[in-house]
Each structure stands twice: as structure tokens, then as C-alpha cells.
Amino acid sequence: QVQLVESGGGLVQAGGSLRLSCAASGRTLSSYAMGWFRQAPGKEREFVAAVNWSGDSTYYADSVKGRFTISRGNAKNTVYLQMNSLKSEDTAVYYCARLVGAWGKTADYAFSSWGRGTQVTVSS
User: Fold this and answer.
1) Pick from 13, 22, 43, 6: which is nearest to 118 by CA?
2) C-alpha dihedral over 62, 66, 67, 72, to 10 degrees?
3) Which of 29, 35, 121, 124 to pair with 112, CA 20 to 30 A apart?
4) pLDDT per position as a tens digit, 74-106
5) Measured between alpha carbons, how far is 2 from 55 in angstroms, rounded to an integer?
């Protein structure tokens, strides 16, 4: 069972940037497609971005296109989410997870092995 750990969250002003990281303990991530989700207070968890196992294919939620970039480290065992031009509505707990469904899926039931999340707070 792969265990995922997110890091890199924090408090940032609107317009600023943060880079989140997702690493695995117990198993390598290099053969899995991975995704990021977020959950704001009082809202359902929503898809943010996904990257395939090799890092050369991605897809994004419309709300973050052009501002967020998902990528993988050189060893493919870490997944990053570079977040630029942050807005107050990006405030949420961000989670990474492994895609177990078909490529292109955005529903959370298509993902597994959820981490505990990292808090991102954007002040306006």
C-alpha cells in the first residue's frame, strides 16, 4: 500500500506562488499517474490536476488552467504542483492521490491512496 505525504502548503498573499510536493513512503510512484485535489471549507473535494507516469501528459481543472502546473521529479517519484497567481478562492486543503481509473477521469472515486493533505491559505 503506497502512502502519500503532501508538503509545501502555507500562507501566501493573493498573486503569490507556492509549490506543493507529494512523495511516497513504502512504494515508488514512478509507475502511476497521479493527481491533485483540493477541498475548501464547506465544499466538496474537487479535482485540480493530473499527470501521467512519465510526466509528459497532463490535464487540469478549468479553474486552474494557465496558473497551476503539475509535474514529476527526475526520478518520477515525487509529484509537484506549482501554483502561480494565487487567488483567495484557491484556499483549501490540497491532497495528492494515485489515479486508479481511466486517464482523463476527474472524479475522486477514480483516485486512491490519499494523503493527509497540506493547507494552502491565500490572503486577499
Assistant:
1) 6
2) 100
3) 121
4) 777 899 999 999 999 999 999 999 999 999 999
5) 19
pLDDT tens-place string over residues 42-82: 999 999 999 999 999 999 999 999 999 999 987 778 999 99
Grid coordinates representing 85 are 497567481
Does residue 76 contact residue 30 with C-beta atoms inside 8 Å?
A: yes
Q: What is the DSSP string of 8-41?
A: --EEEETT--EEEEEEEESS--TTS-EEEEEE-T
Cell of 58: 497532463
Q: Quick one: cell of 69?
A: 502546473
Does residue 11 contact residue 81 with C-beta atoms inside 8 Å?
Answer: no
Contact of 94 with 114, CB cutoff 8 Å: no
User: Which grid cell is 117?
Assistant: 493533505
Residue 68, exposed/middle/buried by CB under 10 A (0-12, 13-18, 19+)?
buried
